[in-house]
Write a structure and sequence with these properties.
It comes from Cytobacillus purgationiresistens. It contains three helices and 14 strands. The chain has 222 residues and is mainly beta. The chain has a single domain, classed as 2,3-Dihydroxybiphenyl 1,2-Dioxygenase, domain 1.
Length: 222
């Protein structure tokens, strides 16, 4: 599953645009007063300004070449502090065969770089922001994870790993919806998961709009 477009909301449109285009040096694709987008490998990442009272906070992960975690870590640490838990700034997920690091953007979103060693995406060039491959995880909040995951399964999207009521991943290593329980603490963060609208366009499949808690609208490609 490939995410072609991911759209989030933000109350800090100016700071976010500066961060993603100037600090992370990502290519600016849309530049409008109330929204902007950047190129994250094969995915277009859109931030739309919102007037909502609460500050939206999301979690998303970006695939990097599986042999470039050390270089990617050194690169990002020159730009921003990594999130640290129990004195560690990196984790190896044995069951997922992947290394990951986390940082927080100006809006408070928890951003993850993940090197998935099952994927054949090795590169030899020195790591740069151009080597961010795609957005591969998007957090989606549900009040009851398993029933919501089954509702998404009904679209033809299967679970990637056996899930539970705390977290269930749907899709594959190229693109996963991480369904998490409302108010569950995000990994490598002090933030509690809360629902905010998300739109995801999936290659050769369709668009899913998570417009309110425990509900979504699916627009299949004809």
């Amino acid at each position: 599953m490939k995410f072609e477009i991911i759209s989030f909301q933000t109350k800090q449109i100016t700071n976010m645009k500066e961060f993603y285009t100037q600090k992370l040096n990502l290519e600016l694709m849309i530049d409008e007063q109330d929204r902007f987008s950047v190129k994250v490998g094969d995915t277009e990442l859109i931030f739309k300004e919102t007037a909502a009272a609460n500050n939206p906070i999301y979690h998303f992960a970006i695939n990097i070449p599986h042999n470039k975690m050390n270089e990617a870590k050194a690169w990002i640490k020159k730009l921003i502090d990594l999130n640290i838990v129990d004195g560690e700034d990196e984790v190896f997920f044995e069951s997922w065969n992947a290394n990951a690091i986390y940082f927080t953007d100006p809006a408070g979103n928890i951003v993850e770089f993940i090197a998935r060693h099952n994927l054949n995406n090795r590169i030899e060039a020195p790591f740069h922001s151009n080597h961010l491959l795609n957005i591969s995880e998007v957090g989606v909040i549900a009040s009851e994870v398993i029933p919501f995951a089954k509702k998404m399964n009904g679209l033809g999207l299967g679970n990637w790993r056996n899930g539970n009521e705390g977290l269930t991943p749907i899709g594959d290593e190229e693109g996963l919806f991480i369904i998490v329980k409302n108010e569950r603490r995000w990994y490598f963060s002090d933030q509690l998961a809360a629902f905010y609208p998300v739109e995801a366009t999936i290659r050769n499949f369709g668009k899913i709009c998570f417009h309110r808690l425990d509900d979504f609208i699916f627009e299949p490609f004809s």
